[in-house]
Every structure is written in C-alpha cells, then in structure tokens.
Amino acid sequence: MDPEYEKRLLRQQNGQVTPIGSPVGGSPVSSPSKDKYGDRFIPSRAGAVWHINFNMAPDANKVQSPSITRKAKEPSDNNKDSLAYNCLLKNELLGASIEDLKDQQPDDRRILVPKESKNMFQYRVKKRSVDSSDSSPYSLSPVGNKSQKLLRSPRKTIRKISKIPFKVLDAPELQDDFYLNLVDWSSQNVLSVGLGTCVYLWSACTSQVTRLCDLSVDVDSVTSVSWAERGNFVAVGTHKGYVQIWDVAANKKVSTLEGHSARVGALAWNADMLSSGSRDRLILQRDIRTPPVITERRLTGHRQEVCGLKWSPDHQHLASGGNDNKLFVWNMNSTTPVQTYTDHLAAVKAIAWSPHQHGLLASGGGTADRSIRFWNTLTGQPLQSVDTGSQVCNLAWSKHANELVSTHGYSQNQILVWKYPSLVQIAKLTGHSYRVLYLAVSPDGEAIVTGAGDETLRFWNVFSKTRSTKESKSVLNLFTRIR
After folding, report:
1. What is the pLDDT of residue 476?
2. How far apart, in whole angstroms, are the C-alpha atoms of residue 92 and residue 88?
3. Rounded distance, CA 368 to CA 363, Å?
4. What pLDDT, on a 0 to 100 scale, did the predictor assign at position 254?
5. Is residue 44 pLDDT above 70, yes or no?
6. Which residues contact 156 (CB under 8 A, 6 or more apart)?
7. What is the 3-state secondary structure (H, E, C) of the chain?
8. Is the Cβ–Cβ distance between 305 and 323 less than 8 Å?
9. Burial per residue of 25-61, b for 16 or more beta-carbon CB atoms within 10 angstroms, e otherwise
10. Cα–Cα distance, 174 to 454 (Å, whole number)
11. Does residue 111 surpass a pLDDT of 50?
12. What is the pLDDT of residue 365?
C-alpha cells in the first residue's frame, strides 16, 4: 500500500482532515468546527426544555397564585362526575364497598388499598356464592349492590347564584347620598322608594306603581322611608326634620312628628315605637299611638350625623351608627349607650342584627374603613372582621341561612354574599355604575333589591328559601322537646 495513502487514511480515522490546498506531506491540521466522537452515540441535551417536553409534577413547596388556588377549591359538575366514576371503578375492581359520595373527598389522591390481598387479573374466575350480599344471581345490573347504592346516593346540589338581576326598574331622581335610606320592602310585599320630593309604592305581586305623597307643596324632600312590621304604616323622613306617618290602605297621612332640627336620614320601627336619627345628632323614640310629648325619649351620644339605625330581633336593643365612626348599642330604658364600639375608621351606616345567633351584630365602615366587623353584644367583645376593599353601604342577613349580603360603593360598586362565620365570599354581583347605597330584603327572604345613583333598582335572587337542616342539640332549646 502506498505509504502516503496509508497516512491519509489514518488521519481520517482519527478525525483529522487534510485541508484543501495544503501539501500532502505537511503537518496534520484538525478542523476547528468538528467535534471528535467516540464509538458510542451520546445525544446532546443542552437545548431541551423539560417543562414543555415532559409534564413534570410541580414542586409542592412552590406557592401557587391565589387565582389558581381559588379555582381549585370551587366545586363543579365535572369534578363530581369524575369522583362518582372513580368510586364506581374502585367498587368493581378493588372491592372498596363505597356506598355514599359524601364520605369521599374529590381532592383526596391517596391510593385506595383493597380489602384483601388479591390479584386484579386472574386466569381463573373466582366463584361467588349464591348467598353473597354483593350481588344477586337474578340482578340485571352489570354492577354490584354496593355500586348500585353508590349510584342511587343523593348528590348535594351545587348552589348557583345568578349574576344578572331578574328585574330592573327605573328610579329617576334617586339621590346619590350615602347618609340617606330611601328604599324599604314591607311584609305585604310592597316596595317603597323615595324619589326626590315623592314617595312611590311598587307592588311586587301586581307590579302596580302608586304615588303615596308629594312633599313639593311644603318645599321639602324625602330623606328616608321605613315600613312598620305589619306593613300597614310607612314612615317618611324629610329634609326639614319632620317624620310623617302614612296609612297605606287609606292612602292618608296619620300624623307628623316634630323634634328634629335637621334632615332625618335613618328610621327604625319596634312594634308601635318609631326611632329616628338625624343630622342634628339626636335619636328620638316615639310611640305613634300616643302624643309625642308624652312618650318621646331623646338618645344623645353621637357627635355627628346619625346614618344607621336597627332594632335587634328580640326588640330589646337598638344599634346606631354615625358619621363620627362610632357604633352604639342602646337598651329600652337608658338614654345613654350601654355599649360603644370605636374600631371603625369611617362612617357607620351599614348595621344588621343576626336572626340566627342572639346578640350577634354586624357593622360596616365607609370609604376610609372598608371593613365589616362582627360584635358579641352579650359580652361586648369584637369577634372578627373582613376587609372588603371598598366602601360598605348596607348589610343584611339571610332569614333562612347563616349568610350575609353587603353592598358597596367606592370603588367597586358591587354586591357581595358572605358565608358566616367562615366569611367565605359566595357570590359577587355587579351591574350598578354608581355606589350601591340602598338595600332591602323581600319578605320571603329569597330576593333583594338594590338601588344606586345610576337611578335604577335591581332585583337579585341571592338567598335560598330552604332552612338549614342542622338544628341545635342543646337542652336549652325548648322547641326540640315539644311533641
């Protein structure tokens, strides 16, 4: 063999190539752009993107974003269906004997261990006795008795709250004033609304609208409305400080109560006793059946305008909120507050007593506060609070469930439904373009109506009619022992 050819062959085997144009007998020069490889092929993984090419499990220590966590907690029909299907497979393949979906959690990913150690796939079919309770020789179902009970087990219905109102009414001249209370819903299913100088009544049964009164003759305007508990009288507070009592059935004014020197923005009934709060910082309590001079009680304590009044369900305590950021609780006998709460940082207009827990009071603060606070008025201790992120204008409890609805102003203009005591947000309703300053609950406790400065009234279905099945087991609950 030619020695020069043999040298070139050895250079090619060693990865050395003689450059073109170089003398054959010159020193060997290696190519700078060509790597040397051995006898084994090792692929290069420098450009691999593992999180795209392979679905790697996320690290458990990494913190997920709140939106992802919130979506994972929300139940859905698909999750319920997949949970039922998984339980059905466990019954038929692993003999898990699951009869109810309530005992199974959709987020539980633990491996279910069979009741007995056995092979899943066998060459011989295991003989089943005729007396076996898991299956019957005359059954036409392809699954066993346990799986049949599982499929027949009741499923908890997922609550769905409509995000759009079922009715919208125009309310021209509905004032955009945080300190007024211009909407109320009576026990006779009639809505009263103060629009400018007039009070209008809207029947939810017939959708008929009637004008109750017009204060333009007296050069006055409506600042508050409130229905009596029986729904036969409606109280109207005016800008000049008067309180008019109207008989709705007779469509006439019964009496006019004086005593305030400024507008009356808050009203609250307690049987035949009417409480009124004014910008003059006074709260007056009067019995409409007797002359006001005899039964009038003057409650002093607020340093600024009184904008919220609510009587407790047992008719023993009155809660008042004012523009001085204070929340007072009064009893039937004292003319000074028996309890004072000063934790709010803005005006307290939103006040609501719980109909489910005795002595539980909720209150909401204005723009500088934005929080809903809960108080135990039996002990005078604060319970808990939640920051809503916007001005709290109104609060109302559900009549049938331990839930709370709040309406808000700056800057969200939204309606929120809360679960108590967990304070989990159940629903968020939007639609008003101005602050949602007015709120009233229907007599059946299912619907609410909201009013805003956009001059609209919107009706929403937010609460359920069904009462909670959980009843108190306490021996103090006398109603459980009545036969």
Report:
1. 41
2. 6
3. 14
4. 93
5. no
6. 102
7. CCHHHHHHHHHHHCCCCCCCCCCCCCCCCCCCCCCCCCCCCCCCCCCCCHHHHCCCCCCCCCCCCHHHHHHHHCCCHHHHHHHHHHHHHHHHHHCCCCCCHHHCCCCCCCCCCCCCCCCCCCCCCCCCCCCCCCCCCCCCCCCCHHHHHHHHCCCCCCCCCCCCCCEEEECCCCCCCCCCECEEECCCCEEEEEECCEEEEEECCCCCEEEEEEHHHHCCCEEEEEECCCCCEEEEEECCCCEEEEECCCCEEEEEECCCCCCEEEEEEECCEEEEEECCCEEEEEECCCCHHHHCEEEECCCCCEEEEEECCCCCCEEEEECCCCEEEECCCCCCCCEEECCCCCCEEEEEECCCCCCEEEEEECCCCCEEEEEECCCCEEEEEEECCCCEEEEEECCCCCEEEEEECCCCCEEEEEECCCCEEEEEEECCCCCEEEEEECCCCCEEEEEECCCEEEEEECCCCCCCCCCCCCCCCHHHHCC
8. yes
9. eeeeeeeeeeeeeeeeeeeeeeeeeeeeeeeeeeeee
10. 8
11. no
12. 94
pTM: 0.69
- What pLDDT does residue 84 have? 79
pLDDT bracket for residue 2 (50, 70, 90): confident
Confirm if 400 and 463 have CB atoms less than 8 A apart: yes
pLDDT at 387 exceeding the cut of 60: yes
**Rg (the chain; Cα; Å):** 37
Contact of 343 with 351, CB cutoff 8 Å: no
Closest CA to 100 of 155, 150, 151, 158: 150
How many residues comprise the chain?
A: 483
More confident residue, 5 or 390: 390
Where does residue 127 rank: exposed (0-12), middle (13-18), buried (19+ CB within 10 A)?
A: exposed
Give the pLDDT band of residue 77 (cuts 50, 70, 90).
low
pLDDT in tens, 271-316: 999 999 999 999 999 998 887 666 788 999 999 999 999 999 999 9
Q: What does the alpha-carbon distance between residue 404 and residue 416 come to, in Å, rounded to a whole number? A: 8
229 burial (CB, 10 Å; 0-12 / 13-18 / 19+) is: middle
**Two structure tokens written together for 254:** 């019964």
Reported as a single tens digit per residue, the pLDDT across 151-173 is: 777 766 667 889 999 999 999 99
Distance, in Å, from the CA atom of 358 to the CA atom of 272, rounded to the nearest integer, reads: 23
The predicted structure's pLDDT at residue 153: 75
More confidently predicted of 456 and 147: 456
Alpha-carbon span 434 to 440, nearest angstrom: 17
Interior CA angle at 169 toward 165 and 175, to 5°? 110
Q: What pLDDT was estimated at residue 13?
A: 63
The pLDDT score that the predictor gives to residue 233 is 94
